[in-house]
Structures are given as structure tokens and as C-alpha cells.
Amino acid sequence: MTYRDRPGPAGIVIGLIIIALGVVLFLDQTGILGWRPTWSFWPVLIIAMGLARFSQPRPDGTREGGWLIFIGSWLLLNEMHVLRYRDSWPLFLVALGIHTMWKAIVRPTPPPSVPKAEQ
Questions:
Q1: What's the CA angle centered on 52, arms 96 and 63, to 5 degrees?
Q2: For the chain, domain boundaries
Q3: Per-residue pLDDT at 39 exceeds 70
Q4: What is the percentage of the chain residues whose pLDDT exceeds 70?
């Protein structure tokens, strides 16, 4: 059984954190909470999800999560007013080009072959 079949306690904790974040953001949007920082850390959650996915290689040796890290970093820099959305969107084209070149250069390692059962 794999993680995707039965997430266990980790999936429950992550789900509870997402629910709590949603409730806090909802209360903030409705004006009940009134929490307004000068810039928000919400893109850090996207970066954290990307890092979590990147830290666990897939069975074929490849890693995923790079796009989440990139998008979260881009959003965080925009929230911090380091970049502006209208000026920084071409960075997606640069990232797409780098991703395309990386996939052409780096070949995933094939998964180990499973020996056939003897009859």
C-alpha cells in the first residue's frame, strides 16, 4: 500500500491546517477578524508544498514541485512589492524555457526491473 492509498495521520494534520487557514482567511475577508499585515506570507504555503514534493523523488528518479516553488516565490516577491505582477509575468516564459531545456538534457533513470516469478 502506498502513501496515496492511505495518507494516515500526516494527511489528517495537513488537512486540518488547510481548513484552519481557510477559516482564518474567510473570517479576514468578511471583516470579522480584521487581520491586515503589510504583506502576506500566504505564498510561503505554496513554496512549502513545492519543497515537500521536491524532497520526495518519484519512482523513476524525477522530482516534481519545481513549478510550485517558482510560482510561490514569484507570488511572495509580488506580495513583498519587490516585483510587480504586470511587469514580472515574462519570468514565466523564462522558467518555461529553462524547464524545457532541463527536460531535454536530463533523462530520468528507469525504474529497477522486477524479476519475473519462477514457475
A1: 50
A2: 6-36, 40-107
A3: no
A4: 74
3-state secondary structure the chain: CCCCCCCHHHHHHHHHHHHHHHHHHHHHHHCCCCCCCCCCCHHHHHHHHHHHHHHCCCCCCCCCCHHHHHHHHHHHHHHCCCCCHHHHCCHHHHHHHHHHHHHHHCCCCCCCCCCCCCC
Integer angstrom CA distances of residue 51 from 14, 18, 48, 55: 15, 17, 5, 6
pTM (2 d.p.): 0.58
Find all residues with CB under 8 Å of 71, minimum gap 6, and list them.
46, 50
Task: Report the candidate in 89, 77, 10 with the shortest Cα–Cα distance to residue 44.
Answer: 77
- End-to-end alpha-carbon separation of the chain, Å? 26
Give the separation between CA 28 and CA 93, rounded to whole angstroms.
34
Question: Please, is 54 exposed, middle or buried when counting C-beta atoms within 10 Å of its C-beta (0-12, 13-18, 19+)?
Answer: middle
Q: Decide if pLDDT at 77 tops 50.
A: yes
